[in-house]
């Protein structure tokens, strides 16, 4: 839970501002939280106050423990002082604490000394500590002596605690502004409470790294030159360092004359709320910093259950959507709306990165490169399914991985570059209005590398998570499978005394494709873009991303496990329930695209069906014109291509050179979808 630069935080805000929800989101991923309740019980006849307390209790996870301090104001400082470095405390709130402090039952008392004791305890605290308090400094002066005594005491408490804390945040109407960011790095704002413009804190970090050249804007992901706050921002990767951040991304191939699926609005969504930038990371001279313990946005905790509950009110015959209710809840939470819309703008990221050595035993030399070329040309299963779904396709060349049984698969510098490269791919998609990413892969030896990652992160036995090897004739090759198992075993033995941090696992075992996929998951989480996982590379990246930002798994959906034992295990560890059991074996990413029309259909029904008449909905029996509008003629010529024609528009000639590149290669100019 530690975030560089702060471990004590004061969250201020008015009534119903969202301050408590924001504070709870900051500690949501802690394994255990001690919730310190300071408010007195109140009048037993005050049902409204009892309802408020019940709502607060209902929000807390079952793993949290609650400690009451209302009977003794000095007890709060004792609880904070006794907490150790592995503890996480959430104090809600200081307004209730001041109310008890001023209670005549505790008078006479030295209020100033008690506040000073609390501030000293906060300053000396070794625990991860978040305190919530009402902000009364912006309100009118109360007309009663008791009201003035309360505001004076609470104002003095807020000032003392704010001075003792590492960071202070102010929540206004659900939007968070950082009043006191730490010098080293900034805590980030969860998506539901992201500020429209976090220029001030992000600018401090950028000025430290660039000599005051500009201010990073969390809401745009870019940099405003000094004095031009209203100017359009540059892309973040164009201004945050050198090296991989300056490398051009591969082109995006778009479907040619493929109509959108039924029920999906035509044209790009563009301004969907879930695609808005919400993340500000510390910037240094070398670019984006990806480090363990990052605080990325979480999906909305409330809209998901609301959307599922709403399904029971719709005019649906039978028992409803069954397991597809999970899709509705997932889309609602990631879109922040109880009435989610079908995903219109979808992008497939096909990661091509081979693994050398025993990991790729049984693979045909050059086969994965052929699959990548095939996808670029709009042919093959993945490209056909992408075109059928109206999805764009981006072929990404990940760095090749050395034999991990002999030494590290990647260097530390390559891991950092691949993570930032994947993050940039997700940012590029979000900037283009993409509402859903599909993670695909086609590298030789990828499944063995994923099995090694699972063995290192989940304690699995390699033979139990490594799928059977099928050769190019469609036959099972047990000898190749045994070679892969031996390679994974040797790699794990070689690294048995190595650190098990996320970047260490990527360098020693994961390789380029899994490292790039991890960066994609982190970048998509930061920009609130959901991801469909499908296969070993995506789920292995999900396992690694837990140690960098635990929020990432909440933005992932697994349509199918594909019958792969490693995917089953990773899904269980990550808490992802596969929706289907199609057992397709068309390559990683293809199963997700095959299931996508079904997922969209569920969202279309949830968004368009009326409430049942028995629950107050309009009676839909009366004729009201045609149920479906006739399609507009599209002019002469076919709307879909023939079997010998590419499904994607070919880029315009741009001279010699590749049209898709890896993270460390130049790119030829060509047509880009975005």
List keywords for this structure.
alpha/beta, 11% strand, seven-stranded mixed beta sheet, 674 residues, five-stranded parallel beta sheet, 19 helices, 16 strands
In what order do the strands lie side by side in the largest sheet?
3-2-4-5-1-6-7
Kindly report the oligomeric state of this protein: single chain
The residue ranges in which pLDDT falls below 50 over 5 or more consecutive positions are 183-244, 257-261, 263-286, 624-631, 634-645, 653-661, 666-674
Major sheet description: 7 strands, mixed
> Helices and strands: which structural class?
alpha/beta
- Report the mean per-residue pLDDT as an integer: 77
The CA-CA distance between the termini, in Å, is 37 Å
According to DSSP, the number of beta strands is 16
What share of residues is helical?
25-40%
Radius of gyration: 27 Å
What is the helix tally? Answer: 19
The dominant shape is globular
Strand content: 5-15%
């Amino acid at each position: 839970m530690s975030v560089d630069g702060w471990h004590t935080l004061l969250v201020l805000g008015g009534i119903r501002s969202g301050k408590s929800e924001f504070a709870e989101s900051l500690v949501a991923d802690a394994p255990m939280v001690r919730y310190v309740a300071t408010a007195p019980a109140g009048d037993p006849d005050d049902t409204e106050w009892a309802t408020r307390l019940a709502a607060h209790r209902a929000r807390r996870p079952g793993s949290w423990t609650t400690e009451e301090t209302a009977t003794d104001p000095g007890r709060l400082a004792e609880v904070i002082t006794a907490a150790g470095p592995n503890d996480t405390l959430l104090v809600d709130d200081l307004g209730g604490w001041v109310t008890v402090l001023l209670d005549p039952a505790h008078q006479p008392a030295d209020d100033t000394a008690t506040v000073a004791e609390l501030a000293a305890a906060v300053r000396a605290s070794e625990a991860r500590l978040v305190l919530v308090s009402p902000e009364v400094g912006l309100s009118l002066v109360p007309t009663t002596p008791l009201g003035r005594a309360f505001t004076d005491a609470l104002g003095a408490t807020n000032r003392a605690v704010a001075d003792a804390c590492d960071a202070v945040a102010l929540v206004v109407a659900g939007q968070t502004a950082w009043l006191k960011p730490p010098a080293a790095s900034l805590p980030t704002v969860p998506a539901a409470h992201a500020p429209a413009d976090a220029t001030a804190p992000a600018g401090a970090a950028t000025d430290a790294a660039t000599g005051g050249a500009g201010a990073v804007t969390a809401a745009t992901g870019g940099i405003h030159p000094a004095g031009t706050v209203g100017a359009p921002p540059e892309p973040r990767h164009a201004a945050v360092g050198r090296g991989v951040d300056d490398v051009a991304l591969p082109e995006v191939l778009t479907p040619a004359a493929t109509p959108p699926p039924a029920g999906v609005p035509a044209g790009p969504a563009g301004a969907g709320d879930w695609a808005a930038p919400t993340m500000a990371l510390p910037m240094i001279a070398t670019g984006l910093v990806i480090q363990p313990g990052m605080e990325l946005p979480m999906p909305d905790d409330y809209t998901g259950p609301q959307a599922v509950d709403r399904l029971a009110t719709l005019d649906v015959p039978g028992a409803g959507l069954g397991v597809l209710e999970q899709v509705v809840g997932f889309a609602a939470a990631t879109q922040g709306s109880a009435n989610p819309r079908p995903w219109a703008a979808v992008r497939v990221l096909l990661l091509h990165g081979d693994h050398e050595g025993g990991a790729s035993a049984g693979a045909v030399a050059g086969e994965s490169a052929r699959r990548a070329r095939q996808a670029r040309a709009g042919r093959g299963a993945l490209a056909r399914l992408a075109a059928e779904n109206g999805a764009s396709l981006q072929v990404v060349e990940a760095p090749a991985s050395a034999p991990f049984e002999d030494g590290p698969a990647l260097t530390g510098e390559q891991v950092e570059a691949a993570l930032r490269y994947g993050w940039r791919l997700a940012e590029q998609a979000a900037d283009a209005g993409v509402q859903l990413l599909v993670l695909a892969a086609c590298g030789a030896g990828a499944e063995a590398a994923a099995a090694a990652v699972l063995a290192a992160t989940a304690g699995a036995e390699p033979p139990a998570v490594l799928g059977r090897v099928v050769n190019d004739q469609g036959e099972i090759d047990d000898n190749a499978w045994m070679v892969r198992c031996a390679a994974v075993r040797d790699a794990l033995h070689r690294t048995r005394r190595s650190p098990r941090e996320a970047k260490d696992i990527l360098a020693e075992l994961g390789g380029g494709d899994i490292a790039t996929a991890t960066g994609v998951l982190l970048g998509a989480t930061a920009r609130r873009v959901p991801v469909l996982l499908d296969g070993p590379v995506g789920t292995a990246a999900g396992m690694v991303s837990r140690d960098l930002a635990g929020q990432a798994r909440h933005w992932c959906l697994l349509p199918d496990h594909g019958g792969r034992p490693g995917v089953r295990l990773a899904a269980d560890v990550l808490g992802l329930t596969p929706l289907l059991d199609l057992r397709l074996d068309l390559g990683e990413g293809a199963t997700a695209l095959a299931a996508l029309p079904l997922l969209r259909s569920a969202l279309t029904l949830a968004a368009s069906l009326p409430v049942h008449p028995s629950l107050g909905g309009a009676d839909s029996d009366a004729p009201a014109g045609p149920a479906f509008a006739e399609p507009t003629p599209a002019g002469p010529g076919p709307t879909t291509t023939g079997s010998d024609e590419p499904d994607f528009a070919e880029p315009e000639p741009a001279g010699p050179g590749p049209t898709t590149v890896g993270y460390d290669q130049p790119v030829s100019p060509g047509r880009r979808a975005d």
